[in-house]
Amino acid sequence: MGTAIDRFDEKARRTFDSIGRTEVHRGELLRHPVYTRVLHWAVALFFFLALFTGFGIYLPWLFRWFAPIFGGGPLSRILHPYFGVAFVFFFFLQMLNWLAPMLWGPGDTKWIRNIRRVVSGEETLEPPDTGFFNAGQKAMFWEIVVGCTVYLITGIVLWMGARTFGALAVAISYVLHDISAIIMLGGIFIHIYLSTIGEPGTFHSMTRGVVSEAWAWTFHPAWYKKVTGRDPREDYEKARQRQNAPRGPN
Questions:
Q1: Rounded Cα–Cα distance for residues 142 and 125 (Å)
Q2: H or E stretch including 171?
Q3: pLDDT tens-place values along the chain, 250 residues long
Q4: Does the residue 205 lie in any domain?
Q5: What angle do CA 59, 64, 70 make, to 5 degrees?
Q6: How far apart are CA 121 and CA 115, in angstroms?
Q7: Cα–Cα distance between 244 and 27 in angstroms, integer?
Q8: Could you tell me if 216 and 24 are in contact, meaning their C-beta atoms sit under 8 angstroms apart?
Q9: Is 180 among the domain residues?
Q10: At how many degrees (to 10) do helices 34-58 and 73-98 cross?
């Protein structure tokens, strides 16, 4: 199974790399190739399309102004499940793309136990065994995996209706569908914050596909060491000493 996924993923990466381009300049590292970036933005697009049409359907008294954007309430109801299916489909491809680096390891448990110091900024650098993704990113990934499963099952029940599955199943599906959406939306807000203000330089990884070496040794030191062969803390100290070194007269 893993070999088949690897072959599919590698073929997709080569195909998209032949269409797009990622320029890596001096002092930068390749973070996300074209294929990964396309999947990420496709997932984001259809998530928000499903979210906005869903708001107009489930909370019309508060979000009725979303419905006209999609041609009115009846058309929003028609489009919403298709947007949802597209979201699940593209995230499934993203799951295959990221399955290996998202597997949980001993260092992730240590990261979770140390989360207060990480979040508060008491530690300048992430723990040295933080790889391509940290434990927080992995937890969010697996939450979305579970959320997509709930979306798909409850969405089919809601789509087919009470005639097929019964009134009780539909009622339960409404509740689970909404709870999953709220949890996922909260995670998305955290994701947007960390990818912009919380961890400056992260947004470039999903636009240009690259990050600075300083970003890599700060937030993902084990990955930095793997791709460069250099010690992240040593490079950090050298950069800090250069920055603090007295400058001569102009």
A1: 25
A2: helix 167-193
A3: 567 887 888 888 888 888 888 899 999 999 999 999 999 999 999 999 998 888 877 776 666 777 777 777 788 888 899 999 999 999 999 999 999 899 998 889 888 888 777 766 667 778 889 999 999 999 999 999 999 999 999 999 998 988 889 999 999 999 999 899 889 989 888 898 888 887 888 998 999 999 999 999 999 999 999 999 999 999 888 888 887 766 655 5
A4: no
A5: 110
A6: 10
A7: 19
A8: no
A9: no
A10: 150
Q: Are 187 and 138 in contact (CB under 8 A)?
A: no
Give the Cα separation of 64 and 178 in Å (integer).
17
Q: Specify if 157 maps to a domain.
A: no
Give the E-state strand segments of the chain in sequence order: 28-30, 210-212
| Structure tokens given for 128 | 């040295």
In a domain, 202, yes or no: no
For the record, the structure tokens of 101 come out as: 């680096």
Three-state SS for 30?
A: strand
Q: How many domains does the chain have?
A: 1
Give Cα separations from 64 to 48, 59, 75, 125, 186 (angstroms): 16, 7, 13, 45, 21
Q: CB 46: neighbour CB atoms within 10 A? A: 20
pTM over 0.85: yes
Domain assignment of residue 44, given as a range: 1-18+33-98
Show Cβ contacts of residue 210 under 8 Å, excluding neighbours closer than 6 positions: 22, 23, 24, 25, 28, 29, 30, 31, 204
In 20-64, where does DSSP find H-type helix? 34-58, 60-63
